[in-house]
Amino acid sequence: MPVITFDPDGDFAITLTPSAGTNWGCVSDASNLTYVYKNNTGSSADRYDMTDGIPGGSTITSLVIWIRAAKVGGAAVCKAQSKNSIPGHNFSGTLRTLTTTITDYSDTYLVDPAHGTPWNVAELNAIVGGVEIQNVDSTVSKGRCHKVWMVVTYVLPNLRRLRVGVGL
Question: How many folded domains does the chain comprise?
Answer without folding.
Answer: 1
